[in-house]
Amino acid sequence: MTDIRTEDVASVRDLTIAFATDAEPVVAVSSISLEAHAGEVLAIVGESGSGKTVTANSLLGLLPETATLSGAVVIRGREGEETDVVHATHAQLRAMRGRDAAMVFQEPSTALNPVFTVGAQIAEGLRAHQKLSKRQAKAKAVDILRRVGIPDPEKRVDDYPHQFSGGQKQRVVIAMALVLDAGLIIADEPTTALDVTVQAEILELLRACRDEFGATIVLITHNMGVVADLADRVIVMYRGEIVEQAPVRELFAHPREEYTRQLLAAVPHVGRGKSAIQDAAAPAPTSAPAGSLVVAQNLHIAYPGRFGSAGVVAVKGVDFWIGPGEVLGLVGESGSGKTTIGRAIVGLTAVVDGSLNVLGTEMRGAKPRRLAKLRPDIGFVFQDPATSFNPLLTIADCIAEPLVVHGRAANPAAARARVDELLDAVRLPTDFGDRYPHELSGGQRQRASLARALALDPKLLIADEPTSALDVSVQARVLELFDELQRELGFACLFISHDLAVIDEVADRIVVLRHGEIREQGTTVQVLADPRDDYTKRLLASLPVPDPDEQAARRAVWQATRTI
Amino acid sequence: MATVSAPRKRPLADRIPVVSQLRQSIGLQRGMLIAGLVLLSLFILTAIFAPLLAPYSWAQQSVNGHDFGTQQPPNATNLLGTTVSGFDVLSRVIWGAQTALLVIICAIVFSIFLGIFIGLVSGYFGGWLDRILVVIADAIYAFPSLLLAIVMSIVISRGQSTLWGGILAAAISITVVFVPQYFRVVRAEVVRVKAEPFVESAKVIGVPTLRILVRHVLRNSTRSIPVIITLNASEAVLTLAGLGFLGFGIEATAAAEWGYDLSRSVADVTSGIWWTAIPPGVAIVLVVLGITLVGESLNDLSDPRLRRRRRAAGVAPAPAAVVVDVPESGEVAVPYSTDAEERSS
User: Mind listing the pLDDT tens digit for each residue in A351-369?
Assistant: First the structure.
């Protein structure tokens, strides 16, 4: 292997990976070659099924037994020792992992063992590779925790994972990767499970990993904003092949391949959606107009505790309304109560105080019979299209269910004409109705989900993060479809999302929630272009935009908001 | 509209429980499943065709006015010899299969419907009913099933050992022990399934509760039931044999029963008479082994994490195999590769 330059920390030559399945073997990665240069952040981007995670796992030899590899994957350590992962023995792999290459996983809460202290878990990796006493290992653990920005590390080193917040847990996971001074850190969607404000902090830390620790980072992500923020060089993968490799600025400014161009065009961008066409000067309505479908006043929602004990109050006194034909965007981070509000509107969670009036029915203390009358007028689109369909029923049966239940059709077969109409409306071929949910892709399932929600011509649609489980290009098409249908059918909608850019695409007005309270409320352009509240400002500043130069400027703004 | 394939229903052979798993299996798991299925079908065929297969009746002591004699070693008239009471061993072993099958069927029928029903109701509605049922189920685990069976046999037949008395005693005691097992398994699945968004979406649509329970929850909660059925069946055979061995089973003249024959042959073993003990003992072992092998391999095969697959033979540079279909919208359904990614991460 003479063509591998010595400064490459990882080099992959003609790597092909196939998986044995119940049916035909599946080629996940076919004949790709790439290298990670020392001290750079290499981003591998692609949609689900593109083979990016498989490629990253192959760098550490972390593939399951059903995988067959061919080609070469060479990891070079800081001292220059080389390991060919494809042909290495278990002992060689074990020696390489941690010392030369380490991994940061997507979900920090599952990457840490809940029954050991974080100090013990960091020390475990240390003592597997070096001869250290317990005291020395702990001292090193404290040191590394301080360097990844855990406050008061002498005390926190003895804490258990559940005592840390999500962002702190990810810091601990990164500390575990850094503690052995590995030259290569593979970060697989390191910020996907985190809120956007926390994501910004973790990206800052990863940048420090490169600058201060001199580590090379291979960043696997589907988020073009994260790529623009952090990466030096980008590899675009599609269906197991490398489509394009380029330095980050070049890729965003002049994408060479059609696929890359489509991918970039599909990324939603704050300021290019409805906020661009709204009149910023138009005053936001301050009270519910006549004919509002949902009016909430001083709304409190709580989850009951076990056996009569006081439960968790998720929503603490919010006032909002959804006017006729209006799309209200509800934005907030995890734990803000946004999903709870959506569930309360359809009666899945109980209103404990205040008033929630939905289509003329008071939801506080509403009887099941009153709720049953509301059902046909409210549609609901769930977050994860994979689980919101009964896996044993065909798509047509699932879409026919509301029609049958509300007596519009005697049985699923009789409803087929209407189902075909609906499938057509969401741009799905009608014979997809005979398929089972697992035979559809995520985007197709979410279209079917939309068809089911619209089956009874509802006046109100609740969409709970309908696109967060989808790839960007699919998300763009689903949002487009949603917008079209909304204009055509004129239903009012509560659109719940954590992503301001997505909200910008669809919403007429925005409500920003935090910890169950409303921080800001106004028209889309007001909230996004001229936020009044500090929290909204911070949310906006934390959101990475898919443009490296603009993102660099925004990073400076974000640094300023950190102090408030 | 590019290439939209015709609706792809899975072929019938892939939807029948055991057959589909047999088709998926490879290697040792396949061997276990086939061995179990062969033993099990042998057992069932023997039970059904016992009147044709058995040379004599289970309580016959003579043929053509000529006595078999007691404890005769295997000979031309009695291929496996005779017992201490002068019955033909081979005939009793064959007829015994019928009794065992009846017990298995009764035990499963009694426990499965009740267990699934209370599991469904308890898991879905939760609350106090659920807690009470769980405590009762836990308490029942503490009972030895044989003790219950003895009590049952006294209650049902007042100590008389008739065919149906013995079968019902075994089946009901098994029911008492196994209802909690079906209950537990179904309840756990129901608790999982009822939190799935598709059940919530049914609620939001306004589907009546009964329809949710049957159409959406129950149908998705029955995965582990085949495994429990096999456990239930082998436990039923063992309990019947235990009852018979203790003398609470079925009288020799009412029906053939392996446990009873074993208990009568205890004295024979020490005097070197092997042919009265070994055939019924082997029959019990083979039936339980067959059922257990089927249950174990079904358990392994129904779990994708335990199921073994053929290794991908060579790395064929044919990414075309990945592409399932490319609908007009350009979204690509690649179910297997994402699946593989999830497994590897």
Answer: 888 889 888 888 888 887 8
Instruction: Say whether B312 and A20 touch across the interface (CB within 8 A).
Output: yes
The CATH number covering residue B255 comes to: 1.10.3720.10
Å between B306 CA and nearest CA of chain A: 12
How confident is the model over A89-102, as pLDDT tens digits?
Answer: 888 888 888 888 88
Report the number of distinct structural domains present in chain B.
Answer: 1
For residue B123, the enclosing domain spans: 12-317
Q: Are strands A101-104 and A216-221 parallel, antiparallel or unpaired?
A: unpaired
CB atoms within 10 A of CB B147: 10
pLDDT at position B328:
38
- What ipTM does the predicted assembly reach? 0.73
Q: Is B220 on the interface with A (CB under 8 A)?
A: yes
Question: Which chain B residues are closer than 8 Å to A473 by Cβ?
Answer: 330
Category of B93 on φ-ψ map: left (φ > 0), alpha (ψ -120 to 50) or beta:
alpha
DSSP letter at B88 equals B
Q: Which of A52, A401, A477 to mutate to test the interface with B (most CBs of B within 10 A)?
A: A401
Find the CB nearest B207 among A28, A401, A473.
A401
Q: pTM higher than 0.80, yes or no?
A: no
Question: Which position has the higher pLDDT, A183 or B146?
Answer: A183
* Alpha carbon of A19: minimum distance to chain B alpha carbons (Å): 6
B195 touches chain A (CB under 8 A): no
Q: Which of A55, A66, A106, A377 should we substitute to test contact with B (largest number of B Cβ atoms within 10 Å)?
A: A66
User: What is the rounded CA–CA span in Å between residue A332 and residue A171?
Assistant: 23
Dihedral sign, CA of A180, A185, A189, A191?
A: positive
pLDDT attached to residue B160: 64
**Contact, A141 vs A121, CB < 8 A?**
no
* pLDDT for residue B331 is more than 50: no
- Decide the pairing of beta strands A312-322 and A294-303: antiparallel
| Domain annotation for chain A: domains and CATH numbers | 1-100+184-267 (3.40.50.300), 108-181 (no CATH), 274-284+326-334+367-545 (3.40.50.300)
Instruction: Please write the tens of the pLDDT for every residue from B42-75.
Output: 999 999 998 888 888 887 777 777 887 777 888 8
**Strand boundaries in A484-529, DSSP class E:** 492-497, 509-514, 517-523
Q: What percent of chain A has pLDDT over 70?
A: 97
A320 bridge partner residues: A296
List the structure tokens of A522.
């106004």
